[in-house]
UniProtKB/TrEMBL annotation, chains A, B:
Catalyzes the conversion of 3-dehydroshikimate to protocatechuate (3,4-dihydroxybenzoate), a common intermediate of quinate and shikimate degradation pathways. It comes from the Bacteria. Belongs to the bacterial two-domain DSD family. This is 3-dehydroshikimate dehydratase. Mg(2+) binds at H446, H526, E602. It comes from Brevibacterium aurantiacum. Residues 273-290 have a biased composition (Low complexity).
Length: 634, 634
């Protein structure tokens, strides 16, 4: 599948955009006119640079407000088009995007539009240019893809085709079945964008909130399958207007974009039956293979979180807290002198002490922070191969010759994601710490990660495409310093659950130690450990002197008014610093520890089939952490 | 007018919110339930603190999902209400907000709701509590204020009244005339919020985008006038859910909120006829004076920008650029040894050199930045008095005994706003620099100020309320590092024009030197000077070696395709680095200088009645500045 990206998706100068697209591995780009206008490089220099970078210039865009106008205006518009055709010759671009008229159309008459398209086609022909006519969702008289196609079909000119843009089509909820009527060779260009489900005016939605495929709410696999069935053989291009992407690192955004296309491509390539089916039902004769779709190594949903690795320069404080929570020290790694293993049943925490001599270039050096997560996957080699093809950066790692080979990649938040071969028995690597088995019933229930706000959508796609996790609907959680956006990524059976949290403080968006951006006040991350008896765990923790996160009396009084709780039970909750939630499936009991560096723990007990994370309690936690921070600051 | 604010408007802990509200000068607060639940302070401690701070606790809110339910559920709801009444007794609050049922209502029968309200009233009576029933815009069966009022009227219970919230009413575009039917004493509470004109689902609009009165698109003067006419005598309270306010400095937000109420109050108090009129037309007998509205000293729109003050630690570079632009050095201030005056016709620039010995506590010390603006007002004393009553902070200023008395305040972006007595003749203070008059035709056309993103709405209200400027519709301008939000504040005749720009880079939101937040890359500000002949100005500048901001060749080629320009004229533009725009009223020609510190200049010539600021050229400028910055960084 030939991949392309509109320069408007990326930040930076036009030159920076071209370099980023090429470095990420795109085959081509769409030149967004304004990027060229503000560039000091001539069209010839841009064409030359693209040649040197090995990327094609696939489209010049946009050309606006041509058709559906009176003759005098149309003459002017044709003249304006001609200057663009001349410019395209200098750029070496043979296709231009024509958007349906938004601003100047006065004639709602398909016959007039067809005739004007045909005349534009004649002019385009003299310059060897193809015109891809696209219905903007907010076009004055033409706003539906099938209307645009009817016009193109009626124009019946070899230089006039249509451009299909998933945003303009899916945002209007138009019936997709007529895509099958369009012969692939009359689709002159294909633009993809995903979008979150928002209820707002479509223009603002389009200009600010588009995201890459897999980062929104739409089924772009279905959409692309329908296009493939037409026999379309051109580039599959991303056109995403997104406020965050515009201000993010351009190389990261380009990689994110290409990942989305590779993932989407594979989602169709993996299911060849789907394309054939859709094609059949649409009655089209298109071969569906013209896109040359490449699969990726398959990945199934992870079976669980094998371990969490914490890095610390404050070993005593951290391991004391773990001991208070009932974790047992197992041993040091036989070949890594600063690495310990702690277990609580199946909950495994690796603690890497960062000492001055142990500091390597790859390891960040300060604080206590969540360094990585080991996921149990059914085929670790396949998962790693897939990750590499999805342009994830591999974690450099020293390994003794007889250690289990663990490979992993960096997530967008800088944490390390390792792929472990799933095995129902105790994992092999545990033996490297001199441990055989454990019988306590406890496991890692979920891990809560802080995300830099500009890379939030990237994170969703990362976990979706590499680990087949699913994005649940996001929530806003009030905190004393603003709303925290919380997005749970999870496997279907809930064995892997990761709430991703975006801090409201732009300066606090970095995770201490992982070296993403500047750190003012890191938003804390946590490991939630499930146990069988929260009161027993709390009693142990109390007796061992745990610094619980304080829960206000007002909270318990409010609990009493919200739920019809037994007074004795309520008292027991309060005495043990335990918070409580309830839904129709079951109950949730949990307590929090104080924060060390940027990490804290949560101990939880799920009763029945409670599926959530105690969302009503999150503001209580955030307020308590805010007070602790303020006290520390004072 | 008694003022109040919901704690949910402010960031921080409940204690911090109470202190901020009191410090700003509010008479009372609404306690938002969640703020209490997450607080470690008992209800009694909160009540005590409020007493010590001298603020009243006016409302407990919200109570949800009471009415329109089956009997068994209603019994539970009553019990839940009772726990809140008990809690309110501990807080010393006598009014609770009851929102129309959103989640659990199953019975769409006004009779049932009336009966349930009456029963709630009986229970409330036994606790001495008043219930203010409010129609939420997204209520299940009750979503209009007049429907809620009909229900309250039918319930006919002394403990049941209504709450009017401008958001829920104005967001639905409901006819306001029925407000006049409500006796003031049955309005148990009044909540005000403004909002920008957005097309989106009303729940998200309400939860994230409310702003203080004067910061949005609604006519709250009219709304409050109608309420005043009912004879309502209770607090006028702000209930504003806003993502930025939630993460901003709580004291600043509180001041911003109180300013909005004082401004709104005065807007009605200033026009006593209006309230009477509205009252008459509504046929109500309410006195309209129960709110005890206080006026503010009047301010008329400013007549012009008297001067701009630049502060610099690089005097030579700055004044060389000003000389290149045709500014003339006039002299040093007679009593301030580091302060120079430069003139170009009526365009006056004061240059304050910041030297190590001159550095005072109030003056920031580094860089070249825009320090302040002198506005010409018809009554400077009145403007200053008004500013003080609107809680603006006065600029401390040394003054020799025989100098003109200049007083001013700090704007939200840290710049200084000075009020000059308008006088058609040459301003008196100019003589302090040994200058009498000037004949060159030139003036300050506009000043472009960078705004910290979290204080954007505050800035709009500041200039509206202190200087009677008007907010024009905002625009997004693409730059290589993201979209720049641009909002023009101007006087009706255009003699004062200030585009306010919010940088897309959260870390770059500060203005160098003015000490707002941390500065990574300051978004540059500029002074635009109008001249009679842009080509002559450019020629002078060229001959004096000005470092023009470079304009790409591609820009001129695009100009050619956009406008039907004479080739010779186009060449002349290009040779002189002059950019060009056109609208139906006239033409705009302008060039930019390079940036010194965080300041640059723009020289402009307006032909005809062109009203804009060359918006299509702004991306060209931003891209060129980005390239210069990148080069400097490399």
């Amino acid at each position: 599948m030939r991949t392309s990206i509109a320069t408007v998706c990326l930040s930076g100068t036009l030159e920076e955009k071209l370099r980023a697209a090429a470095r990420a591995g795109f085959d081509g780009v769409e030149i967004f006119e304004q990027d060229l206008v503000v560039s000091p490089d001539s069209p010839e220099a841009i064409a030359k640079l693209a040649g040197e970078l090995g990327i094609s210039l696939d489209l010049y865009q946009p050309f606006r407000d041509l058709e559906g106008v009176e003759e005098a205006q149309f003459q002017k518009n044709l003249k304006r088009a001609e200057t663009k055709f001349q410019l395209m010759a200098r750029l070496g671009i043979d296709t231009i995007l024509l958007c349906s008229n938004v601003g100047t159309a006065t004639i709602s008459d398909d016959g007039v539009v067809v005739e004007q398209l045909r005349r534009l086609g004649d002019l385009a022909d003299s310059y060897g240019v193809n015109v891809a006519y696209e219905a903007l969702a907010w076009g004055r008289f033409v706003s539906e893809y099938d209307h645009a196609w009817d016009l193109v079909k009626a124009a019946d000119h070899p230089r006039i085709g249509t451009c299909l843009d998933s945003f303009h089509i899916l945002s209007r909820n138009t019936d997709l079945s007529r895509i099958a009527e369009i012969p692939g060779e009359k689709i002159f260009f294909l633009q993809l964008a995903d979008a979150p489900a928002l209820t707002m005016d479509v223009l603002s939605w389009s200009r600010h909130h588009r995201v890459f495929p897999g980062e929104g709410a739409w089924d772009l696999s279905d959409f692309l399958t329908r296009i493939a069935a037409t026999g379309y053989a051109g580039p599959v291009s991303l056109e995403v207007f997104n406020d965050s992407f515009r201000q993010s690192d351009t190389n990261r955004t380009a990689v994110d974009g290409l990942r989305s296309l590779r993932w989407l491509e594979a989602s169709i390539a993996d299911t060849p039956g789907k394309a054939a089916e859709s094609q059949q039902s649409a009655g089209s004769a298109g071969p569906g293979s013209a896109l040359d779709l490449q699969p990726l190594p398959e990945v199934e949903e992870p079976r669980g979180i094998n371990y969490v690795e914490l890095s610390t320069d404050d070993l005593g404080t951290l391991t004391r807290q773990m001991h208070q929570l009932g974790f047992q020290f197992i041993g040091y790694h036989r070949s890594k002198p600063h690495v310990q293993l702690w277990l609580r049943g199946q909950a495994r925490i690796i603690v890497s002490e960062v000492t001055e001599e142990a500091g390597t270039t790859s390891a960040p050096v300060n604080g206590t922070f969540l360094r990585g997560i080991g996921f149990e996957v059914t085929d670790s080699q396949s998962a790693m191969d897939r990750a590499a093809l999805l342009h994830a950066e591999e974690v450099p790692r020293d390994q003794a010759h007889d250690d289990e080979v663990l490979r992993g990649v960096f997530a967008p938040d800088g944490s390390e994601v390792f792929f472990h071969q799933f095995d129902a028995a105790t994992p092999a690597w545990i033996k490297e710490f001199g441990h055989d088995h454990d019988e306590q019933v406890s496991h890692i229930d979920h891990v809560n990660l802080a995300q830099p706000s500009n890379h939030y959508d990237e994170a969703v796609l990362f976990y979706t495409s590499l680990l087949a996790l699913h994005a649940q609907s996001s929530q806003d959680v009030p905190s004393p310093s603003g709303l925290v956006r919380s997005q749970v990524m999870s496997s279907t059976d809930g064995s892997v659950r990761m709430p991703l949290n975006v801090s409201p403080q732009p300066n606090a968006e970095a995770v201490a130690g992982r070296g993403i951006g500047s750190v003012v006040e890191a938003y804390p991350e946590h490991v939630a450990v499930a146990c069988e008896d929260i009161f027993q765990a709390a009693a142990t923790a109390l007796s061992r002197g745990l610094d619980f996160l304080p829960v206000p009396q007002n909270y318990y009084e409010d609990l009493d008014s919200r739920f019809d709780l037994d007074l004795e039970f309520l008292q027991r909750l309060q005495e043990n610093h335990v918070l409580y939630d309830w839904d129709e499936h079951g109950e949730f009991l949990h307590f929090y520890t104080s924060t060390i560096g940027s990490v804290f723990f949560e101990m939880i007990e799920r009763r029945g089939d409670y599926l959530g994370f105690g969302a009503p309690d999150a503001p209580v936690r955030l307020a308590a952490q805010h007070r602790k921070n303020s006290q520390r600051g004072a």
